[in-house]
């Protein structure tokens, strides 16, 4: 499972040596013709949907970002239509570029 924090920059504060992290920035994820759409039910969680579509539950943030959901819960609202992007390699590449300059 890929950690969504693996490309988050850590900065050591001069003088105190304290370590802090820079805010993570997520890429825009425009809709594509081959994206999947699901209507959420009471059993749905973003990590389970990510595993079902990507075989990696750690990529739940892609579904959350694509649907402008807050990142503080894995439970989407019941009965809404969620877009599940299919171009995950491009999204991950953009994420790494934005946050690490790779």
Polypeptide structure, described:
This protein is of the alpha+beta class and 102 residues long. The protein has helices spanning 46-54, 60-66, 88-100, and strands at 10-12, 19-21, 36-39, 81-84. The protein has three helices and four strands. The strands form two sheets. The chain has a two-stranded antiparallel sheet with strand order 1-2. Strands 3-4 form a two-stranded antiparallel ribbon. Helix 1 packs across helix 2 (60-66). It is elongated and about 50 Å long. The two termini are 20 Å apart.
List the helices and strands and how they pair.
Layout lengths: L9 E3 L6 E3 L14 E4 L6 H9 L5 H7 L14 E4 L3 H13 L2
Antiparallel strand pairs: 1-2, 3-4
Helix pairs in contact: 1-2
Major β-sheet strand ordering:
1-2
- State the share of residues found in helices, binned by percent: 25-40%
User: What is the β-strand count?
Assistant: 4
The biggest sheet amounts to: 2 strands, antiparallel
Strand-and-helix sequence, N→C?
Answer: EEEHHEH
Give the terminus-to-terminus CA distance: 20 Å
Percentage of β-strand residues: 5-15%
Are there runs of 5+ residues with pLDDT below 50, and where? none
Rg (CA only): 15 Å
Give the mean pLDDT: 89
By helix and strand content, what is the structural category? alpha+beta
Tally the helices: 3
């Amino acid at each position: 499972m890929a950690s969504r924090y693996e490309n988050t920059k850590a900065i050591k504060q001069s003088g105190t040596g304290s370590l802090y992290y820079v805010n993570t920035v997520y890429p825009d994820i425009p809709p594509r013709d081959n994206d999947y759409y699901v209507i959420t039910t009471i059993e749905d969680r973003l990590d389970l949907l990510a595993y079902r579509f990507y075989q990696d539950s750690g990529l739940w943030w892609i579904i959350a970002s694509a649907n402008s959901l807050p990142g503080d819960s894995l439970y989407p609202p019941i009965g809404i239509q969620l877009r599940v992007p299919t171009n995950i390699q491009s999204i991950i590449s953009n994420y790494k570029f934005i946050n690490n300059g790779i």
